[in-house]
């Protein structure tokens, strides 16, 4: 758990301390959209829920990110055996043999997709909140696309070699004894929403955010481990001693913000509970 203490705005009449955490198990500074933009994720074609990336993506990796087991090899059998052509009159027969066929190796498109990813690529991957990613295939997209949720900071031979911290994680795949781990940094965008779990209220309130998650802001149901939807209001270069006080968007702003330092502490992520 990553725990920060955030304060309500200096402009508020009552100052209530906030304790914020994130639930990344291993753990993006993003671009800021114009203020006043749509609070929902952009509508994209496809069969996924509104606001989530399209493309008919397959089922996701588990949140704990274990490596996927390697596929088997195709079976190859010799096509011919030694045969004897007996000659008449007691003469010696000739023996005909055929070389055994070389076993064929089954193709592995998933391994190929992982190996095609390079540092600096962006992926249409996010945590669904149900202990898995939306896809087990690392689909590459333009980093300016609406579904570019992850930025690949590095490619390693194990997830343990990836940078850790809030808003960071990895996804890995093992094929034929070789592991490819993609180190992920979340790209946060104003107007998008995250899943979170709040416990307590007032001075005792705690907010546990799924910083790698993405969700339609208007979703009526959330995964059991969450009970709040947070709306991203700002993504800023973190000033010295950054806190929720730095999330004010206008003078006299009385909004109650929850904030996190992400991207290795270089970026201030500001959120509020989604109001609809």
UniProtKB/TrEMBL annotation:
Q: Which organism is it from?
A: Streptomyces sparsogenes DSM 40356
- Parts of the chain that traverse the membrane: none
Which segment of the chain is annotated as a signal peptide? Answer: 1-22
UniProt region (Disordered), positions on chain: 30-113
Task: Give residue spans, biased composition: Gly residues.
Answer: 73-94
Q: What is this protein called?
A: Serine/threonine protein kinase
Keyword list (alphabetical) reads: Signal
**Presence of the UniProt keyword Signal in the record:** yes
Q: Does the keyword Signal apply?
A: yes
Taxonomic superkingdom? Bacteria
**Compositional bias (Low complexity) at which positions?**
33-52, 100-113
């Amino acid at each position: 758990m990553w725990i920060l203490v955030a304060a309500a705005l200096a402009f508020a009449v009552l100052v209530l301390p906030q304790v914020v955490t994130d639930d990344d198990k291993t753990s993006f500074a993003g671009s800021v959209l114009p203020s006043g933009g749509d609070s929902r994720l952009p509508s994209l074609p496809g069969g996924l829920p509104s606001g989530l990336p399209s493309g008919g993506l397959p089922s996701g990796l588990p949140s704990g990110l274990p490596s996927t087991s390697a596929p088997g090899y195709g079976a190859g059998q010799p096509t011919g055996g030694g045969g004897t052509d007996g000659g008449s009159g007691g003469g010696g027969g000739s023996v005909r043999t055929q070389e055994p066929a070389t076993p064929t190796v089954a193709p592995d498109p998933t391994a190929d997709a992982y190996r095609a990813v390079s540092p600096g690529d962006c992926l249409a991957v996010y945590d669904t909140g149900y202990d898995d990613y939306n896809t087990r295939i690392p689909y590459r997209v333009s980093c300016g696309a609406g579904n570019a949720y992850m930025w690949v900071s590095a490619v390693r031979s194990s997830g343990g070699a990836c940078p850790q911290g809030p808003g960071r994680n990895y996804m890995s795949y093992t094929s034929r004894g070789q592991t490819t781990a993609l180190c992920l940094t979340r790209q946060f965008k104003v107007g998008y929403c995250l899943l979170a779990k709040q416990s307590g209220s007032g001075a005792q309130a705690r907010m546990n955010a799924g910083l790698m998650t993405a969700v339609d802001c208007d979703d009526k149901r959330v995964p059991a481990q969450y009970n709040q939807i947070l709306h991203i209001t700002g993504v800023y270069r973190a000033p010295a001693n950054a806190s929720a006080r730095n999330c004010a968007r206008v003078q006299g702003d009385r909004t109650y913000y929850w904030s996190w330092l992400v991207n290795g502490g270089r970026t201030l992520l500001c959120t509020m509970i989604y109001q609809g």
